[in-house]
Amino acid sequence: MEQNGKSNNETACIKMVALDLDGTTLNRHKQISPRTVAAFDRAMEKGCHIVVSTGRTFYSLPEQIFHIRGLEYVITSNGAHITSLADRRQIYENNIAPEAVLAVLEKIEGRNMSIETFVSGRAYIDKKEFDEVAAFGSDYRDAEYILTTRNPVSGICGFMKENIDRIENISLNFRDLSEKDRYMAELSTLAGITVTSSFIHNLEIGGSNTSKASALRFLMDRLDVSPSELMACGDSLNDQRMLQLAAVGVAVANACPQIKETADYVTDSNDEDGVAKAIEKFVLQQN
User: pLDDT per residue over 34-74, tens digit each?
Assistant: First the structure.
C-alpha cells in the first residue's frame, strides 16, 4: 500500500520474517488465511525463517500454529520466551526480576483494575473476574478470548508472589483510558521493567530488557541472520522495537498511528492478507 522509507532495492535478501499475531497475521476470526500460509510455504522454500513473535503466552497460541509445517520458533510473552516448535523446548528466557515484580505489586495491589500474569507459558486471571466475564461478558475486551486462554486463580496478586521468580509478564486492563495513561506514567518511573501495550485498553509489563526485539537478536545470532536481512510486521506498540530493528518494518493498515509512523512500509489490513502481500513483495519477489 504505502512506502515510508526504504525501497525494496535498498535492503538485503530477507532471511527472516518476524510476525506479530493478533491484529497482524491473524484475521478477525483469529485465523491465518490460506494465502498467508501459502506465502509462508513459498518463503520457507527459499530458505527464509518465518518466526511468530507475539504477546501471547505459549499455551495461548492458536492451534493452527502447530500445524504449519516448517515453522521453527515462536517468541512469546512479548519476548520473555523463545520455544523450538519441533520439540517444544524453551531455548531463551527473559523474565521479570522478583524485586521488580514486588515494586509493581506495590503500585497495583488492592486497586480496582483487571490484573493478569503470565507464568511458565500460561496466562492467569483472578477467579472473581473470570467468573464475572463468564456470566456477563465484557464491554471492552474479547470475552471469548479471556475464557479460552486465561486460567482462573484465587487471588491474582498472591499467586504472583508465590511464583515471583517465574513471571514473564504482568498485564493490566483498563476500561477507563485515562486510568491507563495515569498508570503508564506511574509505572514507567520504576526500575527493572519495560511498559508497553498490545491493544488500546491494556498495559503490558516485562523485564528490564524484555522485548520482541531482544528475543529476535538472540534468535538472529543463533541462525546467522543480520538486521539487514530481517523483515518484521506488527500493529501495536509492543511491536515497535522489532520494526525498528528490521531492515523492513511493516505495519498493517489497521495498525495504531505510532506503528505506521515507525514502519518503512504499510501493507493492507489483517483482514486483507496484508502480511501475505508484504511477504510476496519483500521476500518472494527478490532474486
Answer: 999 999 999 999 999 999 999 999 999 999 999 999 999 99
Give the length of the chain.
287
The grid coordinates of residue 255 equal 495498525
Termini Cα distance of the chain: 22
Rounded to the nearest 10 degrees, how much is the dihedral formed by the CA atoms of 170, 174, 178, 179? -60
**Contact by Cβ (8 Å): 44, 21:** no
Question: What's the grid cell of residue 48?
Answer: 527464509
The pTM of the whole model exceeds 0.85: yes
Domains of the chain listed by start with CATH number: 2-94+211-284 (3.40.50.1000), 98-207 (3.30.1240.10)
Q: What is the pLDDT of residue 8?
A: 43
